[in-house]
């Protein structure tokens, strides 16, 4: 099945947790101080997806050690080249591998994250770059976010009977509804051999990865809320683009935009999103949608009213 250009809208929320700490700022949650919006990098999001695939038994390019240190690109390439030589009965060095179409095809066939997101791979004093057909912007919160700061004590054992603790800061957001925008490029998909199965794996991971992988003390409290991936007819100039600013948050009675603490404290307004869909409807091939049960099915029903059987639910 052919790959088509597409747009992605992805929402998840974070409650009393640290979605993406800044190591250069006491690990505070990343913030746009001018707007009060919480920020999360695309690197953080893709780390959840990669960890999900790795724990499902897939090989990936970017991985971490048990000590939570990222394995260097040179180390990964060395391991992969050894695997290739062993599997194929060859003895390529890095210079030969860089010039080998068979080795590059083997890499792409093995590493789903490279087929999706691309990679820069070091080979003999240079590098080979695959530009990923799937790209995400940084995510930002749709609400103004307050940060809660409390001291924490970390315990360390100094000896058989002695224990000491160190004080630190435990930075967490009260509540953040985070939104990401992503794109799928059919032209770039040809260069990384992206498949429909890869996009189905992406759909699955964006729904399931965070609940399974955000399980450390500072990351518990994050829940996917909505995932929408739209595919376009080849050659159509119509595009939805970034839909995040077309969403509205309507606080429940007694709440204000600055006092949101839970998904039940507001409803998400999709009127402007649906208007954008109606405007671009002629160029839409199909759409895939997942919504958390707590959001209800109103958006799904209204979107189906525009797209009909072109809307698939996950």
Tell me about this structure.
It is built from 9 helices and 16 strands. The protein has 314 residues and is of the alpha+beta class. The protein has 2 domains: 6-59 and 135-145 and 173-313, no CATH class; 73-130, no CATH class. Strands 1, 4, 5, 8, 9, 10, 11, 12, 15 and 16 form a 10-stranded mixed β-sheet that branches. The chain has a two-stranded antiparallel ribbon with strand order 2-3. The longest helix has 18 residues, at 196-213. The model is unreliable at 153-159 (pLDDT under 50).
What tags apply to this protein structure?
314 residues; single chain; 2 domains; alpha+beta
Mean residue pLDDT = 92
**Using only CA atoms, what is the Rg?**
22 Å
Helix fraction, binned, reads 25-40%
**Terminal residue distance:** 19 Å
The count of helical stretches stands at: 9
- The ordered string of helix (H) and strand (E) elements is EEEEEHHHHHEEEEEEHHEEEHEHE
Major sheet attributes: 10 strands, mixed
Supply the helix-strand structural class. Answer: alpha+beta
- Global outline: globular
**How many DSSP-defined strands?**
16
Low-confidence segments, ≥5 residues, pLDDT <50? 153-159
Strand fraction = 25-35%
The oligomeric state is single chain
Number of domains: 2
What does the secondary structure layout of this molecule look like, with pairings?
Elements lengths: L5 E12 L3 E2 L5 E2 L1 E2 L4 E4 L1 H14 L17 H16 L5 H5 L2 H10 L1 H6 E6 L2 E6 L2 E3 L2 E3 L5 E11 L5 E22 L1 H7 L3 H18 L8 E11 L15 E4 L14 E4 L1 H10 L3 E8 L6 H10 L3 E3 L1
Protein name: CRISPR-associated protein, Csh2 family
Pfam family, one: Cas_Cas7
Organism: Rubrobacter xylanophilus (strain DSM 9941 / JCM 11954 / NBRC 16129 / PRD-1)
């Amino acid at each position: 099945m052919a790959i088509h250009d597409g747009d992605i809208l992805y929402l998840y929320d974070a409650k009393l947790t640290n979605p993406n700490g800044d190591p250069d700022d006491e690990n505070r949650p990343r913030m746009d101080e001018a707007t009060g919006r919480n920020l999360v990098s695309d690197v953080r999001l893709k780390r959840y997806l990669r960890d999900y695939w790795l724990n499902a038994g897939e090989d990936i390019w970017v991985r971490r050690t048990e000590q939570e240190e990222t394995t260097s690109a040179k180390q990964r390439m060395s391991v992969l080249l050894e695997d290739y030589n062993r599997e194929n009965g060859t003895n390529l060095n890095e210079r030969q591998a860089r010039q080998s179409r068979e080795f590059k095809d083997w890499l792409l066939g093995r590493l789903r994250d490279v087929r999706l997101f691309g990679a820069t791979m070091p080979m003999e004093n240079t590098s080979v770059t695959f530009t990923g057909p799937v790209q995400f912007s940084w995510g930002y919160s749709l609400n103004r976010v307050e940060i809660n700061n409390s001291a924490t004590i970390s315990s360390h054992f100094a000896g058989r009977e002695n224990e000491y603790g160190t004080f630190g800061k435990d930075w967490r957001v009260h509540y953040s509804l985070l939104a990401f925008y992503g794109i799928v490029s059919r032209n770039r998909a040809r260069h990384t051999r992206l498949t429909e199965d890869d996009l189905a794996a992406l759909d699955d991971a964006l729904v399931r990865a965070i609940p399974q992988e955000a399980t450390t003390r500072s990351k518990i409290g994050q829940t996917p809320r909505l995932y929408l991936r739209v595919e376009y007819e080849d050659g159509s100039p119509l595009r939805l683009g970034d839909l995040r600013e077309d969403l509205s948050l309507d606080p429940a009675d007694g709440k204000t935009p600055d006092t949101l603490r839970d998904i039940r404290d507001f409803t998400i307004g999709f009127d402007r999103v649906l208007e954008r869909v109606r405007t671009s409807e002629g160029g839409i091939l199909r759409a895939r949608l997942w919504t958390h049960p707590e959001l209800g099915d109103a958006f799904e029903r209204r979107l189906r009213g525009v797209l009909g059987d072109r809307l698939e639910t996950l």
